[in-house]
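Thread: Newbie trying to understand structure tokens

Hi all, I'm a second-year student working on a class project, and my supervisor (Dr. K.) asked me to get a predicted structure for one chain before our next meeting. I've only ever worked with sequences, so writing a 3D structure as a token string is new to me. If someone could post the tokens and maybe explain what I'm looking at, I'd be very grateful. Here's the chain:
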Amino acid sequence: MSEIRRVGRVKHKHSRKKYTNYFYSYKSARHLWCEGRSEIDTALILEFDDAILSYSDQNLTFELEDPNGKLFTYTPDFVAFDLTVFDWVVIEAKTQFYQMTEEDIALLRWCFKTQHGKTFRHIVPENECTELRLKNYRTLYKYLKLCPTQVLPIVTAKILCGDALTFEDFRLALSQRNIDDAFAFSYLAHRLAVFDFDLPLNDLTIVEFI
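---
Reply by user tm_fold:
Sure, no problem. This is what the structure looks like when written as tokens:
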């Protein structure tokens, strides 16, 4: 299965051609439509954010009213259940070069908070995290489909590898037990073994077991 793929449907917004991509969320166990790189990267951020319990794509349209009484509708890119507020939050994803204006952000925050009791978030992936972190998310994303503890329980992994070691040592330890490299990546993807996401992931990366 290809987790992210470009499909033939093309949408037009602000006179710019936007390709719609099919993205599979392992966290939500469903496929999502993502328009352009900003939405794909935002979905990856949500996928790896432990504070986000679940999220979905553009499946809700809200009716809002501005301070002057003018009614308008708004369809967010995502809605996500955020454990930090223990409620659904409304998310608009934009690129660094096509960000929302401060006035529009303030208006939507006010409308959603006063009329729906919801938090509005404007996410620009480049501002949310480093390029290295996004690269690591992209690398590890496909390994979320694996369940590494079915092959190597956490207790066994700790006995086998100790509390901390290099990623190369971890992979070699698994290889000695005839366990595929993919499960080493899957341990990291599921944060069963942790490393600094803002540093390159390579053989010298230090990983620690939680």
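A couple of things are worth pointing out once you decode it. The chain has seven helices and twelve strands. The radius of gyration is 20 Å. Feel free to ask follow-ups in this thread.
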